User: Fold these one by one.
Assistant:
Number 1:
Amino acid sequence: MTYLLLSKDATLYSVRRFMQAARAMRVPLQYVNPLELSISQGRGGFTLLHKGRPLPRLSGVINRFGPRGLAFGRLVSHFCAVAGIPVINPFTSLIYSKNKFHTLCRARALSIPVPDTCIPAFAGDLHNPRALQIPPPYVVKVMVGTQGIGVVKAGDLQALQSVADYLWARAELFMIQHLYQADEIQADVRLLFLGPQCLGGVQKQPSTQDFRGNFHRGSTFSRFMPGAQMEKQARRLVEDAGVLFAAVDFLLLKNGEALLLELNDSPGFEGFESCHGRFVAEKVLEFLLAGKAGLAPG
């Protein structure tokens, strides 16, 4: 019986916590950089290899992929689906959750409020009031990003044009939203889910040096108790995506609105555990051992 933890960086807090919890629980969890894997397909079937050597039969996989490892990570997750190996987040859920705009579209279909958003295809769209019905200042987000990478603010249309030109030159898809200011925001919050269970919530306070609310960028976290409506909306989105271990981010405005920002299928939980105690890694491993991980078809 062997379990696999896939992540590109062994020094990440989440990776270290999973390995620590596995040792304490005596779970045979092996850390592997997914970019050291290869997939072989022959008459004998599919084989997953690590550094050229076939891996033993796997009992389950914790698959955590950032943008750089996503393309191959999807293939590995697809292999798991075909081979009948349970994974924390099935292949089909990665297609849903890794694209920010796809998530917003699904949220709107589920009647979950989202920010007004524009995806301009051409430079001229930025100067078309019918296309860009969003007041400045702006926040620009690439479709696939993590830890705040690919999130840029632009104070006015001229700055927005510069950012857009750079991203268009790189053939990067991006979306534009209004950047809410401190006097408009009540709270920036995150709910952490494992299956249908909400493990808890945190409120993020960005540092004065960086507007992005990521823990590793200096943001401080405090406990947050979500209302029944917010928790229900987040659970609906998680279940619709088919993602099993995920974070759902909301922006609470002082006018009473709660806007869905994104769904994260590879959430860090250092800030969460700093508020709620160290139990997330153990819960995920228990979930995997109990056979509750996904076997979505590829």
Number 2:
Amino acid sequence: MKLLIIGPKSYENIALKEDAKKKGHDVLLVSIQSITLIIKQDTMKAYYMGKVMDDFDVCLFRGINPFFAKAKTLAKYFHFNKTKVIDRELYNRVYEFDKMFMSFELFQKNLPCIDSFHFSNYPEFKKYLEKIPRPVFIKDMQGMHGRNMFYFKTKKGLDEFFEKNRKKVSQYLIQRVIINEYYYRVLVIGNEVYGSMKRMSFLNKQRHETKLEDRSFTSELTKELKDLALRAAKATNTDIAGVDIIFDGDKPKLLEVNRSPKFKRFTKVMNVNVAGEIISYLEKLKPEK
């Protein structure tokens, strides 16, 4: 297999590259910024280091934010050239890297979602302020790995945040906070579930006093967690998914489906060679050539 990995030189991507090489595959890891696209004389070509990129069996996209538009273009290009592309939703249809878009994908498949609110401007937000339950999280619509996330207990704090960020209201998603000190990360690759890892939530009082590597624990993969994670991955057409689930009382709710999940912690805590499992999954994909 000739494998192209598009993404940064992260722990995960380097692990994927090394595991693919151990299995005898030809693999290239490149950043999305280093790829050039040229349309000339009725042809379109992608180049890296001056060479045409047209003979890969599989192309795996990882860590494409904030270059989402270019990633979609490249995905369509490689798919057109009969390369198997993962994440397939990049070329399959109109897909947006957006938390409300993801929430809608889950909602329309009758999956348990968290109450979410999105407003286009500050006046619209003010009209609905009284109806927004508290406490809430405010999340960057295109944020990743918990960045640009804010917690508010009061109506005043919530209002002051959006008043200060009037021009950026549409960039944020408001979600009701579920009071639970833990949530679960379930890893799905293809149609297989590889375990459930318990993690300290933002509300866990011990979280900020605990080292990052000690905030995750082994956990039983219950049938409820497994079934919900599989349904969420299928609903969003995600081949490699990190599904985050939190319990609201005894009812599971979907926090998020991560389409390009980090897996350094999962590998260590759950004793699963995630990189190897991903490469094994890619090996099974039949090239379209």
Number 3:
Amino acid sequence: MNRKVQALIKLVRPAHYLKNILVFVPAVFSGLLLDQKSFLISMSGFVAFSLVASSIYIVNDIKDRHHDKLHPKKRLRPIAAGTVSVREAVILALCLVSAAGAILCMLHASWLATGLICFYAISNIAYSFGLKNVPIVDVFILSLGFVVRVYFGAAIIGVEVSKWLYLAILAFSFYLSLGKRRNEIIANGSKTRKVNKYYTEAFLDKNMYVCLGLTLMYYSLWSVDPSQKHKLIVFTVPLVILIVMAYSLRVENSDSDGDPVSVVLGNKTLLALMAAYGFIILTLVYL
């Protein structure tokens, strides 16, 4: 594989597609994951969302290319490093968006599904062009992206999302986003991100763990809700507690920037716990 192709692959950040697995959450808990039609629709939605997300990463890298050159890690990104030109990046982003649009048309995606993915794109472009410098708003947009993934996944297969599950995902999304800001401040202060001058480590710590507590409470309420079809899911609560504790330990002791993908992929224990959770959930829902 030549250097240019490697740079283009790095530019779209395929490792971050891990976050887009949230598109499958509604199919999993509605019992439709093994339904061939629903699975293919969810998979197509996953691909479409990943393509749109990659195009936004490209827009962000173009916008921040001069600033990224000052960052110890981000300076290695293809555009900042000069291995991919701005023109090449723009063409790639347009191709990705076009491919995502074609997939949505092929799926005959509902207006809700289309609106959600457009909202995700617009809000994240607004984030790249200024909202990322507004305290609290920056964290809110990052967190909202996780929730939109879930609702998009529900919209394309025509199911509803439990209100308790929505609250659990929202609270955990805030926890992840605040953790990212926390580690950025510890590693680089406000040198590499303007908004970090408004935050303190103490503020982020307090709010992180408020959100983490809310996550566990909402997840527990979802698991015991009378409408919950799978009654044994309540027994996954201890495992979820272990997962968030392992994640917190990794964030607290890590020299990473707190990016959720880096945190998860960089810890075998956390990966094993998450795999165990996935296996147990699939067993409880489908057997």
Number 4:
Amino acid sequence: MASPHAGTWKSVYVLTRCAWPGDDAQMLAYHDEEWGVPVYDDRQLFEHLVLDGFQAGLSWRLVLRRRAHLRRAFDGFVPERLVRYDARRIAALLRDPGVIRNRQKVEAAVRNARAYLELRAAGTVFSDFLWQFVGGAPKQYRRRSLREIPPETGVSRALSRALKQRGFAFVGPTIVYAFMQAAGLVNDHLVRCFRHREVAALALRSRA
């Protein structure tokens, strides 16, 4: 006979998380599975950077809800495809209700694809270029509250300048720091969050 308490722990055990996802199911899944996981793949890093550019002045919740559609509309954020977008294609995107219809942001995605390809043509690996700013390994912070997390840092300002010098757009230091958090260049999960330790362990394995 099963214990009368069998399964009870599932109903009372609550994971301690960072507060910013709230109770939004999609945001919770993003927090638990993606945010802060170290990314070394060039194309994924490029997508992260473009999406964080779309986030400027908006909430990440809005971008996340539209991410699947944005991926389809922008050909999977493949730089070799984006760089061929002409005025007609951009105009069509600006009529698409599923896209964040800001001309500067849409044009920046195309410009960033060009900058990415020029960087690669010069013999620079995009991942190496980005990760050098944190010494090749994620910075492990031990923030205890959201108030301790800055909107930008000296490193994000340096990376922002370097990206702008190479032709990237919508890469201000605040956008870049959000990118660094999302792509795991820094671990900004609060120290009490269950993901802080998990993400730190992922960082160690990725460098092994």
